[in-house]
């Protein structure tokens, strides 16, 4: 099978039938499967999908709401296509863009083609402006240079999609996860439509979740395979500052005979010493956990892009 299209839906009863119709029309002539993942909808979403689905459509039904990352991961897990598309089920992404993105990916130069909502049909204050700030921060802190991290419409080569490691709410950072695998990415402009039916499941309240996940992504990028470099470095710095403070106080105490008991500096020095020891200890524990993670599952800390064997006889 050439293409698997994974669509996550949650309480989209008025959108799923037009969505399926658009998918069937856009993908005609392509060997594809449409995988709809219902993330615990409480309306008629499942019923409407079942009433319209054709034999190329698979429906995964969660018993409760698990979140978009989990739903997306479930769809990717059962996908059989050589290429895998992810998109939202609210009709704001346009299935008509998929063939163009597929053609771009089939050129062979890239592993991921990401959509950019060139003419985004959302409110400025609650959607566009926070998104611009988030995009700027993610680009500069992770050095993954994409224009639109919020667009779910992307197409991946199978081996990249299957190894993303989606947990929590990391679907917002899929480009960063793909980059960790060494994926080459490019962008194309895609259509974006105003929401007609239903309500958005996202708002300004997700900002703090994005910030927390961004910190995790920075750690993954820089220190996942070498956590001691982060915690050990912080520990040594903190411990050294604490030692200098305490040496200074010892000189003040025994050299000049001054009373140092009760000074805030004494408390700071003790805290920094203990904090430094704790950072170093956490680094050692994290290093052991990292080694256990790889060795217990026979994972490698590298990914081979290709193995070439010469054909000329020696």
List descriptors.
314 residues; alpha/beta; seven-stranded mixed beta sheet; 7 strands; elongated
Give an overview of the whole structure.
It is a single chain. The chain has 314 residues and is of the alpha/beta class. The protein has ten helices and seven strands. Strands 3-2-1-4-6-5-7 form a seven-stranded mixed beta sheet, sandwiched between helices. α1 links the parallel β1 and β2. α9 (227-256) packs antiparallel against α10 (264-296). The model has no long low-confidence stretch (mean pLDDT 85).
| Coarse shape | elongated
Rg, rounded, reads: 25 Å
Low-pLDDT runs of 5+ residues are none
The major β-sheet equals: 7 strands, mixed
Read across the widest sheet, the strand sequence of neighbours is 3-2-1-4-6-5-7
Number of strands: 7
So how many helices?
10
What class do helices, strands and sheet pairing give? alpha/beta
- Strand portion, in percent? 5-15%
Quick summary:
The chain is of the alpha/beta class and 314 residues long. It contains 10 helices and 7 strands.
Architecture blueprint of SSEs:
Layout: E1 3-9, H1 16-26, E2 32-38, H2 45-52, E3 57-61, H3 68-78, E4 83-88, H4 98-106, E5 112-117, H5 124-142, E6 154-157, H6 158-161, H7 174-180, E7 185-190, H8 207-223, H9 227-256, H10 264-296
Parallel strand pairs: 1-2, 1-4, 2-3, 5-7
Antiparallel strand pairs: 4-6, 5-6
Helix pairs in contact: 5-8, 9-10
């Amino acid at each position: 099978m050439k293409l698997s299209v994974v669509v996550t839906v949650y309480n989209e009863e008025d959108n799923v039938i037009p969505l399926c119709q658009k998918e069937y029309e856009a993908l005609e002539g392509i060997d594809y499967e449409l995988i709809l993942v219902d993330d615990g909808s409480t309306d008629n979403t499942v019923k409407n999908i079942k009433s319209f689905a054709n034999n190329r459509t698979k429906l995964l039904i969660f018993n409760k709401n698990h979140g978009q990352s989990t739903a997306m991961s479930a769809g990717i897990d059962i996908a059989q296509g050589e290429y895998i598309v992810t998109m939202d089920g609210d009709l704001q992404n346009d299935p008509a863009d998929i063939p163009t993105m597929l053609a771009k990916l089939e050129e062979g130069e890239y592993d991921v083609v990401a959509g950019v909502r060139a003419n985004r049909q959302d409110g400025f204050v609650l959607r566009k402006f926070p998104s611009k700030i988030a995009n700027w921060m993610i680009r500069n802190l992770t050095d993954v240079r994409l224009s639109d991290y919020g667009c779910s419409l992307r197409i991946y080569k199978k081996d990249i999609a299957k190894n993303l490691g989606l947990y929590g709410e990391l679907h917002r950072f899929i480009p960063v996860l793909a980059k960790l695998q060494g994926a080459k990415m490019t962008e194309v402009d895609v259509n974006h439509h105003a929401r007609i039916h239903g309500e958005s499941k996202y708002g300004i309240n997700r900002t703090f979740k994005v910030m927390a996940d961004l910190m995790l992504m920075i750690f993954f990028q820089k220190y996942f395979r070498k956590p001691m470099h982060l915690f050990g470095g912080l520990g040594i710095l903190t411990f050294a500052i604490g030692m200098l403070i305490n040496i200074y106080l010892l000189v003040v105490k025994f050299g000049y005979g001054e009373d140092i008991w009760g000074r805030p500096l004494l408390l700071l020095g003790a805290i920094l010493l203990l904090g430094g020891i704790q950072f170093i200890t956490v680094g050692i524990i994290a290093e052991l956990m990292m080694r256990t993670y790889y060795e217990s599952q026979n994972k490698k800390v590298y990914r081979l892009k290709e193995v070439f064997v010469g054909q000329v006889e020696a």
